[in-house]
Structures are given as C-alpha cells and as structure tokens.
Amino acid sequence: MNGAHVLIRTLVANGVDVCFSNPGTSEMQFVAALDDVPEMRAVLALFEGVATGAADGYGRMAGRPAATLLHLGPGLGNGIANLHNARRARTPVVNVVGDHATYHRPFDAPLTSDIEALARNVSGWIRDTTRPGDVARDAVEAVRAAVGPPGCVATMILPADVTWEEAGEPLGPAAPAGARGVDDAALETVVKALRGGEPAALLLGGRATRGRALVAAARVARAAGAKLLGEVFPARLERGAGLPPVERLGYFAEFATAQLEGLRHLVLVDAPPPVSFFAYPGRPSGLVPPGCEVHALVPPDGDAALALEHVADALGAPPGEYVRQPAGRPARPTGGLTAQSLADAVGAVLPEGAIVVDEAQTGGLFVPGATAGAPPHDWLTLTGGAIGQGLPVATGAAIACPDRKVLCLEADGSAMYTLQALWTQAREGLDVTTVLLDNRSYAILEIELARVGAAGGGGPRARSLLELDDPELDFVALARGMGVGATRPADAQELTVALERALAEPGPHLVDVRLPARL
Amino acid sequence: MNGAHVLIRTLVANGVDVCFSNPGTSEMQFVAALDDVPEMRAVLALFEGVATGAADGYGRMAGRPAATLLHLGPGLGNGIANLHNARRARTPVVNVVGDHATYHRPFDAPLTSDIEALARNVSGWIRDTTRPGDVARDAVEAVRAAVGPPGCVATMILPADVTWEEAGEPLGPAAPAGARGVDDAALETVVKALRGGEPAALLLGGRATRGRALVAAARVARAAGAKLLGEVFPARLERGAGLPPVERLGYFAEFATAQLEGLRHLVLVDAPPPVSFFAYPGRPSGLVPPGCEVHALVPPDGDAALALEHVADALGAPPGEYVRQPAGRPARPTGGLTAQSLADAVGAVLPEGAIVVDEAQTGGLFVPGATAGAPPHDWLTLTGGAIGQGLPVATGAAIACPDRKVLCLEADGSAMYTLQALWTQAREGLDVTTVLLDNRSYAILEIELARVGAAGGGGPRARSLLELDDPELDFVALARGMGVGATRPADAQELTVALERALAEPGPHLVDVRLPARL
User: Fold this and answer.
1) Which of B36, B445, B478 sits opposite A456 (nearest CB)?
2) Which of A323, A393, B138, B196 is the most buried (most CB within 10 A)?
3) For B449-474, how does the pLDDT look when each residue is reduced to its tens digit (9 = 90+)?
4) Cβ-nearest to A81 among B77, B88, B101
5) What predicted TM-score, i.e. pTM, was given to this entire model?
6) Cα–Cα distance between A517 and A443 in angstroms, integer?
7) Pairing of the two strands A227-230 and A153-159
8) Which domains does chain A have, with CATH numbers?
C-alpha cells in the first residue's frame, strides 16, 4: 500500500474522516487514493484559509479532529491565520502539508520553503515524515497529539515520494492520552479561597464553557457567591434558556477591568490570566486587579469538569442548584436596520440547537444580550483575533453537525478575508445562514484609532484606510456569484422574515444587513 | 516626532512612497501619521495577500520598493504566499509588520505569535525594531537591503510602542549597495566555453531578461550561435516586435529537457540551474543534461548587463547585431471561445507598452506565441508558483506605471485566491483589464494527476476535487460585487471587441472568457 493510502486509512481508523483540502501537484497521490477509501470525506476549499478555518469549526463541534490537506509552504501560509485561531481555541486539527519529494528538496525548486518554520507558529506537534514506513505511526501520533488534552494543531509534513512509495499497512487507534488527574493542592487552594467569603470569580475558558464543566462551575459560583466569568473569545460557549449564564469579559480592557474590579480571588479554569487584547499608551497589559490572587484550578491537560465537581462537592454545593438563564426572546423588531434591531431579529428567531459563529465585530454588539434567553445554543468566537474566521468556521461546524442550524454573524471587513467559504457551503449544501453585518467600514478600527491616542489621529487620509465604501461591496452579488442565494432586507421586519426563511430552508443563505456606517 | 512619523518620513526620503496596507489596531499610529506626510500614498487592500502581491508587482515595474503594512503574525501569514513569489522574483519590498508593544509581548495576548519565524521564510533581511531611536536607521537599512542587488523582501517588525514613543528625526538615503564588479575568471570561462563552437545556451533570469542585459545577451547568443533561453517563470521579461526573442523553458520537465537536450554549455545569467518544478516518480529533479557544463556568469549581487556586455565584446559581437522578433499579430479571431482564439484575441489587440501579468495556467498556453510579435511589452509571471499572484501583481504594476495598460491573464482557480484585488483596482481607478480564463477546473492538476502516475488516479472522487463547476462561479457577478465592470463575450469576435474596449476605457474591467472545460 503506498503512503497516501496508508495515511488516509490510518486517519480513518483513528476517527479522522473529514479532510478540508486545497491540494496541488505534490498532494495528487493523496487525492488519487480518495476513491479507494470512501470513508474519508474530502471537502474542497477554494483557498487554504477556508480549509483551516473549517477544520477549526469542525473540531470545535465534533470534538475530534478533521484533517487538512495543504500545498507546501505557501499553502500553509495561506492557512496560518485560521490555524492561529485554532491554536488559541485548542481545537484538535490534523494539519497535513504536502511537500516536495525528499530528494527534490535540495534542488530549491520554486515552491520550496521552510515548512517547518511556518508550522511551528501554530502547531503543538510537528513531524516531517521522511520515510514511508513511518507514515502509519506518525499519523496515529498526530491524531493523538491533536486530540490532547489539551487539543492542538498537529502538523504532519508529507513529502510526495513518501506518498507514492510502498509504506506497509495502516494502523488502528492508540489509546488517547486522557486528562491528567485532579491536582489536590490546587483544589485545596481554590476551595479555601472560595470559602473565605471574599469577592471571587471563576474565569472559564477552553473546555470549561460547556457540558459538565459549565454546570459544575455554576454550582461552585452559586455556593461561593462568586461571579461566573468567561474569557473574551471562547472557543465554544453553551448558553441560552436553562443554562448557567456566563458573563464574558469585555474586549476593551476598560470594560474587563470594570468586570474584575474589587475581586480578591480569580480562579482560572482552563483559561489564561486576563490580558488586554492590545496595548494602549499608559494602560496596563495585565488586567488582574491589584490585591487579587490568581489560582489556576487545572493545568492545560487537566480535567476541568472533574476538578470543578470536586470543588462543588467540597463547598457542599447541592447538585442541580445553580443560577439558570430564564427563557425569553425579544419582540420581533420593527423600524430601521440598526445594531439593536438586528440583535432583536436574531434573538426573536434563533432556533434551538443553533450553532452561532460570531465574527460580527462592532455591529454585533447587542446580539449576545438579545439571545441570552433563546433556546440552548452554542456560541463560537474569534479565539485568536485573526479575522476571516467566521465563514470558514461556520462551514466546518455545519459539516460536523448536519442536523443543526448554523448562524454565522459576519462583519463585512472580516467576510472579505475568506469569502470563498460560501462556495464550499453551496457545493456541500450546508445549512448555514450568514448574516452579513454590512456597515461599510472597519468600524472597530475607527474606535481603536481614537483609543491609541494617535497624535492628529482621524484625519481624512487615515480615516479613508478604515472605510469600505468606495466602491461599496455588493454582498448579494458576491454571494450569488458563488452559488449562494442572498437577500437584502429593507427594514427590521423584512430582516426577521428573511432570517426565519433562511433558517428554515435547507442549504446556505446570505442576508445582507445594511447597518448605519457608525454605531 | 513619534516612531510612526519617523518611519514614514524616512521611507519617503529613501524613495519608498507607496504603502500597500491592511492595518489593525497595532498599526493605528502609522495610519494616523499618514495625514501629516502626504508624500506617502497608502493603498488599502481587503486582504494581506493582495497587499503583498501588489508590492511585488509594484517593485517589479518601479524598480524600487513599495512598503507593506501588515497586522502581526496572522496578517503576515496571509501575505506569505505572495511574499514567497516576491522572494523568488527578487523583488525589492519593504515589508512592515506591526506587532504588540514590546512590553505587551510577554503577556501572550491572543494575537501574539512568532512573527520573526514566519518572516524568515520569505525575507532576505529582518529587523525587530524594539527601540524608538532605531526606527530611522532601521528603515534606511531596510530600503538598502530591499533594493540590493539582489533585491529582496526586507521585513521590519514594528512594535506598537515604538510607533508612539518619541523617536528622533527621520534620515535621508544611504548610498545604495551597488552591484559587484565583473568577475574576470567567470567571464573568461564563459567566453572560452562560447568560443569553442559546441552547442551552448544562455539561460536568462532575474534582471537579465530586460533592458541592456537582454540586448547584450542577444548579441552574445548571435555571435556564439547559442540559444537564448529564459527561466520558466521570469519576474519581468521584455518582449515583442524588435526585441530579442527569448525562449522560456517549459513548465513541464519533459519540455524543458527537450529544450536543453544536446547542450554542452549552459551559461546561467542571474538564474538558478534549471530544475523540475515538482518531482515525479522515476524522473530526475535536475534538468541539466549529462555532459553539459554549467557556468554562472554573475553572482546574485553581480551586474548581469555589464558582464554580458564584456562577453559580447570579447566575442567580437558587433553592437546592434542580434536577432530581433519580427512584428506581427494574429488575425482577429472568429468562432468559438477556445484557448487558441483567446490567444489570438489578445495578440490582435495588445497595446504597445502593455504590462501583461500572466497567471493564466493551462488556458493561457497559446498566448505567449500569439503575442510574440505584438508591440513591445512586459511579461510578469508566477515566479514562486504560489497561486493567487496575478490580480495583486496587476494592481501593484498599475500603480507603478499609471501611463501604461495592464492586462492580467488570470485563471479561475487562481483568481479565487485573491479576488479582493478587484476592489482595490476599483477604489484606485486602475487601468487593469482582467481576462478571466474560466474553465471551471484546476485543469493543471488534472494533467498533474495523470503525470504523478497515481495508482487508480482519476476516479470520480479524485476528479471532483479538481473541478470548480458545482456550483459554477459567476465572475461577472463577483467582479460587479466589488465595483468592477464585467462582461462575458459569447464568441471570439465579441471577446476581441470587449478586450479593445476594456483596454481603451480608463479604470478596471473584467472579461469573463468561458473556455471549454478541457484543453
């Protein structure tokens, strides 16, 4: 069996049966082998940033990795930004990068570059598989590393000759690494801190924003009288009616500072200490208030759910007793299209079990509030801050969860990074509704321009670099050009109806929401 | 003066007055400073791959660098593929990458990554400018390094605090490095090899495919009875009626092998030894035939024109005596749209002084032949093999040469990588006509799938990964969605008229040419 066959069969045997691909010549053996292994679903993306973002979305929802198939260094380069987001989300991804044949590398052919140096930036595990006999073993290790915990991007560099040489037989799955046991000392410290009655908060991140961990955290919070905070950009937050409401830290450091003010204990649960997203002149980078002790409950490879349950029990928190988000939806909005009426429209119609992919930026400011009491749903965000994440993540999430509706809240400037994802959605017939927040500007940067205190900031030449209105982008035409039906509602009522229809009808849709240019 | 002002003023004083930008928060000081330095033209791109490709196109045509302005590691990642092409073209580029404030780096904020590791892949020079007082000096050195020879991507990493702190005064230009003098030993070897009367060829690359160097090479070729070959993908080839015709090596190794067969001497002029673009089972990587001696006339930082003139004189080649391409155009084509009628249409109307950006892939096979005798023009190609280069390079070339027409031959699959360039063309009102070669497939990969000899290659699942027809892309809608007028001619006559009109009218146009799905 050649290396390509061994790789694909080993991946499938290890639970990796979706591959987001944009192959080139060096990956043709992999492509050719697909006909012999129908268990592997290959999804074509028109750009590698779509493939890697889709793998991120898939991994976040499926809880197991998808593979990618990228073409040498430049293909990996195109996928770096969304692998960066996946790294920050600790999403399991098996990142397969084709390379020149091993013996071709010294010839420095035009596409040659240092793939490993690029990959190191985003990968928790890297292997350059230069011998055909190692393909099966390396593939097993890649999946195991990707799954974690913690999850990571595991990059396998695959020279072309390794794919066409005889490579033995595929391997079945290795035992997963499994989470590390609970650290009694950390547990005791946290219990003691929370028992003291001083102002405290839990900061949930990683895999602590859902499932058992989330419920246990809510029990702890109630028993200790502590706040339940979430990181600014969670990978996947479960929320909605009946679930514990988590207060996400604000993106702007001033807001986060206010949320953390007065705390004496901050318990990190699978989350890093809160920091300012960017630096600003004269403002602090770290956001932990003076006098506040920080306690990490679990290491990155720890079992957050188990640790939280121990803490809850130690605090005597009764099972099932925690604050629950009351059900409630905003009224169907009327009037003009504004950030608020958009939020209300989403809140009015969001279906149960929806997967919301949020790259809405400023125009989406009010949507979390308007959807808080909607039926339970998942919320996926821009974990690494590298824009162009939303449409691809929505694509991958839809493939991971074909029975659920995906709602992608996508800002216009961010959409233009990886708009090609719409074509993959059409090709695969995915149930994704994209709400295009069309304010014709990089509005977040207009705010940031003022915040960095730039001398003379905001002159016409500076502002023109933040505006997308000359010419205006026609997202209805752009979506249709990629085979996705699109509408442009004229007011909030039309928007609500358009959303309902798009969510009810199978296949992808785009709703272009023309918002005022300024918030 | 703050660091941002010092940087921009120093760049302008050193001849860098165009900046292709997609800024974020960490670059806001740079943006704010633009209003104070009107000599710097900032061009907004909707994606970093457009910005870096435009800088490549600008540098190839202007002969001096443009700057970029990219947002941390992910922004650089998005720009890597076209910087890879620029590296292979040895285009001068001053690649400015904003970073977090120096003191913010240890906090590992979400957008933090190893910018230097990414940059090393594509840069001939890198500097992490961590002190405001070094900005001016580093900017001068960056320009000097970028200009070369050889030209390179010079990357300047610019922390946000360095841009807002007091940074002294800007600096004027340093003396350029200048080319190394002629190497008498190399010269003598080449003269001796060419005098012997054995079969010989010159292989022109880099800056030897134009101007004085090209003419001197043609004199040498005529005097020595040697072939005049060009590298597969020249950065900028001058060609057309009255100019020396250069026979480019074929992309497929079989063709290049045939072109090189029987040679006893191959003189490299600013070009690397010929290698196969990819490896194929059982075929050689290096393409120099057995028994052929390879002579490098100049080192990478040498003066190819001067060296060639010395060789020509030593061979007694009379000035002005060399083979010239006869003038001639194909007849205006009639009938259906095919690769041949497309080529004839371009050949029939290509204006004098046009800049042709060629990312046409298989559909463009016949265009070089059909334009060989057109009035003199420049031909810019996919130097590094990283697709998504054409539309951005055309954008930058148009900014470098506002008095010339740019014709971009763009394959559909490659177009979808960096289609956002159309918006920048519209915004800047650039004279770019894009001929979209729309065959609804990655046709080159369909050929490569067969060539790699994949077992069972070409099954329906493999082939479906190489096809772009489900759904079909509507490039007229896509272009209009970004503010670029577009037409879809029905036959070769309409195509010829559409091309003439698009080239005559100011501003960008797109002509969608529906070609047969197979060559």
Assistant:
1) B36
2) A393
3) 887 766 555 799 999 999 999 999 99
4) B77
5) 0.98
6) 8
7) unpaired
8) 3-164 (3.40.50.970), 184-314 (3.40.50.1220), 339-514 (3.40.50.970)
